[in-house]
Amino acid sequence: MVDLIIFLSLLALGYGAGTWAEKRHYRSIAEREQATVTLPAVTLKSVDVPAHKIRSAHLVHGNVVISVDYFKRLLAGLRNIFGGRVKSYESLIDRARREALLRMKAMAGDATVIVNVRIETATIGRQSRRKSTACLEAVAYGTALTVER
Amino acid sequence: MKFTARLPGTNVNVSPTHPLKEFAVLAGGLLAAMVGIYLIMGLAVDLIVPRISLSLEQKLAGAFSARITDSEKLAGATRSLQALVDQLQAHCAPLPYHIHVHVLQSDAVNAAALPGGNMIVFSGLLKKMTSENELAFVLAHELGHFVHRDHLRALGRALVLMTVSTVLLGADNSINRMIGKGITLTDLSFSRHQETRADEFALKTLFCRYGNVADATTFFRSIPKEEDPWRFGHYFASHPDNRRRIAHLEEMIAEHGYPLGRPRPLPPILVIPKNPS
User: Which of 31-70 (A) contact B at CB < 8 A?
Assistant: First the structure.
């Protein structure tokens, strides 16, 4: 009985806190994406600008670690049984990648464009054969170019 | 191509399904699958039980029987009950089992048939008894469960439920603990059909032993609602089935023309003083 109460409270806490944090995060992501929309981050290796016009070029990167909440983990566990799309983790990856891109843009400051952008994802904090909460890390990196007008 | 800075209108990377809806669908599906497995395994138990030999049952029950500890204080009552059961068995209810009677100190007004020929009688039941015939009916009812091997069916189902809950919730979960307690403390639950068959058997045995069916239905009538601590016991008047069971017994008595007769008093050793509380 005690197990069940603990389980249900964790579930409710996971759902409540997880949903609240996610909503807040998405609001912040949307605002910052709007604010940095004029700084393009592209996967092209270079831009068609003469070399002497490029004032500076340097590596910029942004990374973020986001944790899974209890509710999402349970939902993904249930998905492990039936198969199919793990929808509960989709928003997690989406948030992590967009946040990493935003942090990379913040690092670029007043650059004109970020080229050769790559995003990588990794899980951290997961020990093998032990039940521990996995965290998701996303890192975005690229080359920030400042072009003379 | 001209570059225009704008954000994508929609997010295609996140499914719009509400997480709670997904949870309900998945958890419901899992529960339905487990219930399905439980029902199928239950049917399998019913098929297997008639094929389990007595020696195999003894072996399976070996560890189980050792755990039952008889109360020293009730040794006299145990001997007396054993004698009563032996008499019933010898004359009227030939069973391939040797039945061991165990009296346990407990307020539960109940008795139980356990594998390996172990019959548990709670001292709370003895307190309620008014005559030997009434007691014999209850004992014969339990013997009826042994005849039809209902105890193995119930145990098999409990085992299936434990297996399913272990798969689902891990080894140490509340369902397993509940069943673990349930097996030793209260009777295993039998189906309505199983109870009726055991009642019929008990009535025939009672007539065979005493030549009358005095007090056959007394016990069902005598237990008031508030004294059913488990709410699942199979003798209690509060049980919705019991009025039907009394009616069925009376029907059978009329049909076979069993005389009602006079009940015999209880042997003095089985008269347990009622608690003042």
Answer: 33-34, 37-38, 40
